[in-house]
Amino acid sequence: MFTHQDLSELQANSLKMQNWIRQQTFSPEMDKKLRRFSSWEVASLILKINQSTFRGRLASDPTLPAGLVEEDGRQRWYTLEEVNELRRKMKVNRQSMMPERPAGKRAVRCAIANFKGGAGKSTVALHFAHAAALDGYRVLAVDFDPQATLSHSMGLTNVSEDHTVWGIMARDLERETNRQNAAAVGAESGTALPQRRIPAAITDMGLGDLRVNDFIKPTAWSTIDIVPSCANAAFVEFASAQYRHMNPEWSFFAAVSRYLDALPDDAYDLIIFDCPPAIGYQSMNAVFAADLLYIPSGPGYWEYDSTTSFIGQLAEALEDLSAGFEQTFPAGKVSLPKVFQDIRFLVTRYEPSNDLHRAMVEAFRKVFGDRLTDNPIEMTRAVEQSSRFLSSIYEIDYRDMTRDTWRRARGSFDLAYDEFKETFLAAWQKLEDEA
Ligand SMILES: Nc1ncnc2c1ncn2[C@@H]1O[C@H](COP(=O)(O)OP(=O)(O)O)[C@@H](O)[C@H]1O
Ligand SMILES: [Mg+2]
């Protein structure tokens, strides 16, 4: 017979081996590095200008970054920093190359969410983050999924749960409870309201002392940061239920929203949330903080089925929150019921030659109408392969595969990103000025 003690012993053994196993499984230099981009990519795919125009500019302006010429080729290769410098310094047809950003607004926030594992959430989140960074935007990714696929893909493997969304939530519980207690003391109603207490187990963790930036880690992409996750953060689902019990008036679902509100408005342009495959405390935080809901779904019948039940359950959960917290929800930047600027469905892992897939996309179109994006993301070997190296198609060097194969896989994400960009720009415009 076995008890929790046996489980603890098994875990202690496992922990001893953890680092060794990690070293054996991952490549020895786990430090992720971003490659350079060729002048062909920079001109045609990134800045979207004529290659000869690009060469002309470089020849006539010695202050522009020159990139690196590799021994075997004629092309110049640029780092992301150099690409961004080119973007800042160059004008084409008197037009700035800087990406569009509505003035005076905070970053726009997008949750990539669905119930189903394997829907392509993390793949979409990773590729949209990379596409946006190549487009000149400054991106913050927030990994809400303790499976931490996005964190691993962005090179973060040694993460403690204190520095995940779980930490943000526990910190928020402490801060919100203190705020409520202070308000109760300050109330002039004569009868002082009871003080809520948070157990030392939480306050002793010192999360209250953490600053906003303590949760944010840099990645190999200089314009992408991440709030990472890790397996231990799965604990949040369990602990949060107890936390709610300690303080039922704690608006647990708004913790991340409050956290992001504390960032300077112009720190980032786009904040992307990768959600766990379940509705729970973490995913409710993602959804609640989001301006935009992007729902990826595979093209099969079962995926259609689970996407349908996902939106049903999400609707119920949001309605419950609205009813339950109407009276107690603190006034501030967010209010109830939760309002999204837009909701879009995106079909992923689509095979254009597959009759069933085509029929399913038509069904999606009938049901969701304009809420379905025009460009599904195609299933490609190139993306499957690059994900095995924990990389996006944007990160993989096109010389590592047939250029057409790479081009086609990238093209599919480019189209989906262009549509995503249109959507987030429209949502961004609609955000109320908060300055
Ligand atoms: N467009 C695609 N082409 C090929 N493989 C894909 C594509 N999108 C996702 N995959 C693969 O499907 C699997 C599940 O995708 P993932 O993004 O991790 O789903 P989720 O985050 O929803 O659980 C991964 O192995 C991923 O590499
Ligand atoms: Mg995932």
State the main characteristics.
435 residues, alpha/beta, three-stranded antiparallel beta sheet, 10% strand, binds adenosine-5'-diphosphate, binds magnesium ion, DNA_Partitioning_ATPase, Chromosome partitioning protein ParA, P-loop_NTPase
Can you characterise this structure?
Pfam families: AAA_31. Residues 111-311 form the AAA domain. InterPro entries: AAA_dom, DNA_Partitioning_ATPase, P-loop_NTPase. The protein is of the alpha/beta class and 435 residues long. 46% of the residues lie in helices and 10% in strands. The protein has 15 helices and twelve strands. The radius of gyration is 23 Å and the shape is globular. The termini are far apart. The mean pLDDT is 90. The site of adenosine-5'-diphosphate (ADP) has 17 residues, from helix 5 and helix 14.
